[in-house]
Design goal:
303 residues; alpha/beta; D-Maltodextrin-Binding Protein, domain 2; 2 domains; six-stranded mixed beta sheet; five-stranded mixed beta sheet; 19% strand; globular
Length: 303
């Protein structure tokens, strides 16, 4: 009996050892700490298995310099574009075209330039005549420049029109009599240059009018609109679109004979680090969707 009992104990011990080996009883090797978080990856990324970034998804900050008269419309269109291109952030710089041209020339970061006049774009374009591009500047990316919009130079008055200005003809007569105060743009901004042509069309001397206190100046169209809205002046010459945005009454729009056409050129710049996105944004501005937004405030898209 004792022998049988011992055999039984030996058999149970052997069975126990066999089960332990089959169930992975051997100790697991120690894990090696990773160099950093794997973010749920199956393995730690190495130069060999690291996925390449997708160019289309790379974050892009697109800097757009645009005439102040485009503030409302481009802000809206920029939001639409960013909604459709989640990796793109558009940063706008709105000011007079002359100021923007100077900032670009002095090295400001800019991918796209939209001017309210041809002169400021020509001053940056190597293909323009030396008569206009007097400094031989070369900032316009070849093949991207085009005329995007046409605007109208409008004579705007505040609500109620207290000075009774009914047209450009009546403005000219009132200026000649010294009975009105007009707000206009400085000579270095497109709207001021258009106004100078209008004064010349009527045979009025700007310097004489300014000396007589009949003219006050502003650095961009938004300042002129504010002066008219606040009744600081009797009237102002701005763009039709800005009169619309500011809720001002337009009593006249200048003809091409009076000041020429108001054409807005647009282009990507050759100093841009985001040329492909700049070109794509400009193509978007040519779309029917963008055209509807421009037309709603008085612009005419140039086809």
């Amino acid at each position: 009996m004792k022998t049988a009992k011992n055999r039984t104990i030996a058999l149970l011990m052997a069975l126990s050892l066999s089960l332990s080996a089959g169930c992975g009883g051997a100790p697991a090797p120690a894990s090696t700490p990773s160099a950093g978080p794997t973010h749920g990856a199956a393995s730690v990324p190495t130069p060999e298995n690291m996925p390449e970034a997708t160019p289309a998804g790379k974050p892009v900050e697109l800097v757009v310099f645009a005439a102040a008269s485009l503030t409302e419309t481009l802000t809206k269109l920029g939001e639409d574009y960013m909604h459709a291109h989640e990796n793109v952030t558009i940063v706008f710089n709105f000011d007079s075209s002359g100021t923007l041209k100077t900032q670009i020339q002095e090295g400001a970061d800019c991918d796209v330039f939209i001017s309210a006049g041809q002169k400021q774009m020509n001053q940056l374009d190597k293909n323009a005549t030396a008569e206009v591009n007097t400094e031989g500047l070369d900032f316009v990316l070849e093949g991207t420049r085009f005329d995007i919009l046409e605007n109208k130079v409008a004579l705007a008055v505040s609500e109620g029109n207290p000075a009774g200005i009914e047209s450009y003809d009546s403005l000219a007569a009132a200026l000649a009599d010294g009975g009105v105060l007009l707000a206009m743009g400085n000579s270095d901004v497109p709207v001021g240059q258009y106004t100078q042509k209008i004064l010349s069309y009527y045979g009025l001397d700007e310097d004489v009018l300014a000396s007589a206190g009949s003219i006050t100046y502003a650095s961009n169209v938004k300042e002129i609109a504010s002066q008219v809205s606040e009744d600081a002046v009797d009237c102002g010459i701005i763009y039709q679109t800005d009169a619309y945005s500011a809720g001002l009454t337009v009593v006249g729009t200048a003809t091409a004979d009076m000041c020429g056409q108001v054409i807005y050129p647009a282009a990507a710049l050759n100093v841009s680090k985001n040329a492909d996105t700049a070109k794509d944004f400009l193509e978007f501005l040519k779309s029917d969707e963008a055209g509807a937004v421009f037309e709603a405030v008085g612009f005419t898209p140039v086809k």
